[in-house]
Design goal:
The protein is of the alpha/beta class and 266 residues long. It has a domain at 151-263: Nucleotidyltransferase, domain 5 (2-Layer Sandwich). Helices cover 24% and strands 35% of the residues. The chain has helices at residues 44-54, 87-94, 121-130, 139-147, 190-203, 222-229, 246-249; strands at 7-13, 17-24, 29-37, 64-69, 74-78, 101-108, 113-120, 135-138, 158-164, 168-175, 178-186, 212-217, 235-239, 261-263. The protein has a 6-stranded mixed sheet with strand order 11-10-9-12-13-14, sandwiched between helices. A hairpin with a 3-residue loop joins strand 9 and strand 10 (168-175). The longest helix is centred in the C-terminal third of the chain and has 14 residues, at 190-203. The chain is globular. Pfam families: DUF3822. This is DUF3822 family protein. InterPro entries: DUF3822. It comes from termite gut metagenome.
């Protein structure tokens, strides 16, 4: 059997960086991980093209290729109100119009949700030329898809799930599998993260003693962040991840199980 039939490639596009992960379905683990920071959005496409000329594994064939965009330029729409003929108009209603941008969408049927998101047009054209078979998702799509299953078996009450990045965080709130809230916030300091998180917690009318908070991410001050949160929220759980983007790329390849979730006692 051709070994490429057992490999999947995940490309993660952040605003100032990109990452590549090759995952083996045979070994059930990542076998290649590469991360590169960019100087500015203006040099993003140039550095991306440079990597394709330097990294041999990017020019191989893969069983599956997934491209994930990590950006706060997205909007979430109930499927009942979604109209693919007016995707750009819906998107621009909630986001300022941006030059040289393609507007795409994902549908999460089990959540009755459509996620509309933007991607740089030059990046989109280059990657779809390299990988015509690739599927492009907003990271928000991946997070809603995964988070909607967390804690459902044991607790059908309301819960908040947060994905933490160095300069931002994504917040999704659910009642059972029903999505109540989804948004991203730009923030780096613990105080700002706590402010946004508690603001949303109050907005969706969660209970500080009975509802649960799930955290995922690799920020350096996670312990201090959780310690401060414990002053306001009783039930905090951490979803462990083994590398910088496993919590994103693995959502469509190797689903995180309940054993990856642990209660935080700090």
């Amino acid at each position: 059997m051709d070994t490429t039939e057992l490999l999947t490639l995940s490309i993660c596009l952040e605003t100032e960086a990109f990452s590549f992960t090759v995952y083996s379905s045979l070994n059930k683990q990542s076998i290649v991980y590469y991360h590169r920071e960019t100087v500015s959005p203006q040099t993003f496409i140039a550095k991306l093209k440079q990597l394709f000329s330097e990294l041999e594994f990017l020019n191989q064939s893969y069983k599956q290729i997934t491209i994930l965009t990590v950006d706060n330029r997205f909007t979430v729409v109930p499927v009942n109100f979604f109209d693919k003929e007016h995707v750009k108009q819906i998107f621009n209603y909630n986001q300022l119009e941006k030059a040289n941008e393609c507007v795409l969408y994902n549908i999460l049927e089990k959540n009755d949700t459509a996620i509309i998101f933007g991607i740089d047009k030059d990046v989109f054209q280059f990657l779809t030329q390299q990988y015509p078979q690739a599927t492009i998702y907003s990271q928000t799509t991946a997070l809603i898809d995964y988070f909607s299953t967390i804690g459902v078996e044991e607790n059908l009450s309301k819960r908040m799930c947060v994905c933490l990045h160095d300069k931002s965080m994504d917040i999704c709130c659910f009642e059972s599998k029903r999505l109540l809230f989804a948004n991203a916030f730009e923030c780096k300091q613990i105080e700002d993260r706590i402010y946004y998180l508690l603001y949303v917690w109050k907005q969706v009318d969660f209970n500080q003693e009975t509802n649960k908070l799930y955290l995922m991410g690799t920020i350096s001050d996670m312990k201090e962040f959780v310690k401060e949160l414990k002053r306001y929220i009783l039930n905090i759980f951490i979803i462990r991840s083994t590398d910088k983007i496993e919590h994103v790329s693995s959502l469509f390849t190797n689903k995180i199980t309940e054993s990856d979730i642990k209660n935080t006692l700090l």
